[in-house]
């Protein structure tokens, strides 16, 4: 009973409280692992191949290629700490990949059939840690191309071939007959020198027509944003590591698409899911602005990292945004 003259207390509100969303345990764990891995990179004196650096990269790749739900991926990529380090992590991967390939190119060039009869140049190439991954990616890309271009591929240009032109070497092994032209373009004089010497050695040490027809590969030192002579190629590839930022990739893609022949195919390497921490994603919906018709997009769920985007060059639009 209330005291005389007092106002009765209103009943408590029955409006349900807004529940606080629970954190996804998987997202929390993976986010912590990515941050720990990035910090481990920062503690390394450099990113040249070493047991420590190799182990860190292996853990990162293994973490990123696992299947996660779309909500888990969204939670991880939207985390403020991940957003802060994502571009830096991709740059770290780019630098590490270049140094790894450069190291192995030097290893293969140093191999001698006379001194190491059980480890000739071709065997040394196949010992590259990610050789099988490149073979699987090459098969995936060739199958994607064949679904929209069921004809022999006579000429291919690969922009961003690096010191170890594995994609071109894999194509020369997988395609029968191999393309008449497998042209490799890179803006690093050191990479072009290493790759051309390496392929010359592979061609000399091959038996018969050559296990990988390495002698068919040609090389050109040129910047991707300024390369001119792409009109004679049926298929042009743009490596995933070409262009460190979205702005650079837009500039390069505009130039490349504008210099390809109408009707030719432009194949781009992108990324999906957590693989976007390793490679820059390409906004497929924006490619029409570059004069490209998207024909096919393939997202692998196995140990292959890159997604494959196959486009046909149809116009000269160069103002698109990724």
TrEMBL record:
GO terms for molecular function: nicotianamine synthase activity. GO terms for biological process: nicotianamine biosynthetic process. Pfam families: NAS. InterPro entries: Nicotian_synth, SAM-dependent_MTases_sf. Coiled coil: none annotated. SUPFAM superfamilies: S-adenosyl-L-methionine-dependent methyltransferases. Keywords: S-adenosyl-L-methionine, Transferase. Residues 1-22 are annotated as: Disordered. Signal peptide: none annotated. The keyword S-adenosyl-L-methionine applies. Transmembrane segments: none annotated. PANTHER family: NICOTIANAMINE SYNTHASE 3 (PTHR32266:SF12). Belongs to the nicotianamine synthase (NAS)-like family. This is Nicotianamine synthase. It comes from Sphaerosporella brunnea.
């Amino acid at each position: 009973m209330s005291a005389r003259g007092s106002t009765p207390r209103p009943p408590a509100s029955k409006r349900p409280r807004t529940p606080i969303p629970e954190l996804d345990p998987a997202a929390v764990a993976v986010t912590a692992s990515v941050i720990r891995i990035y910090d481990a990179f920062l503690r390394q004196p450099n990113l040249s191949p070493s047991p420590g650096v190799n182990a860190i990269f292996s853990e990162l790749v293994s973490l990123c290629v696992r299947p996660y739900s779309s909500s888990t991926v969204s939670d991880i990529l939207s985390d403020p700490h991940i957003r802060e380090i994502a571009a830096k992590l991709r740059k770290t991967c780019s630098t590490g990949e270049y140094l790894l390939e450069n190291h192995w190119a030097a290893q293969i060039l140093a191999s001698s059939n006379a001194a190491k009869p059980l480890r000739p140049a071709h065997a040394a190439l196949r010992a590259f840690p990610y050789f099988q991954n490149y073979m699987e990616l090459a098969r995936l890309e060739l199958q994607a191309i064949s679904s929209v271009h069921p004809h022999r591929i006579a000429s291919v240009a690969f922009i961003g071939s690096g010191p170890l032109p594995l994609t071109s070497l894999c194509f020369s092994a997988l395609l029968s007959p191999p393309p008449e032209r497998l042209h490799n373009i890179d803006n690093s004089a050191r990479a072009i020198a290493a790759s051309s010497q390496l392929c010359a050695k592979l061609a000399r040490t091959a038996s018969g027509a050559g296990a990988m027809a390495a002698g068919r590969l040609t090389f050109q030192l040129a910047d991707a944003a300024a390369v001119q002579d792409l009109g004679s190629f049926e298929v042009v590839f743009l490596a995933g590591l070409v262009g460190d930022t979205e702005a650079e990739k837009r500039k390069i893609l505009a130039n490349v698409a504008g210099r390809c022949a109408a009707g030719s195919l432009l194949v781009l390497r992108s990324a999906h899911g957590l693989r976007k921490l390793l490679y820059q994603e390409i906004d497929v919906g924006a490619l029409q602005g570059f004069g490209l018709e998207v024909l096919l997009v393939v997202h692998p769920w196995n140990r292959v990292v890159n997604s494959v985007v196959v486009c046909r060059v149809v116009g000269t639009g160069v103002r698109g945004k990724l």
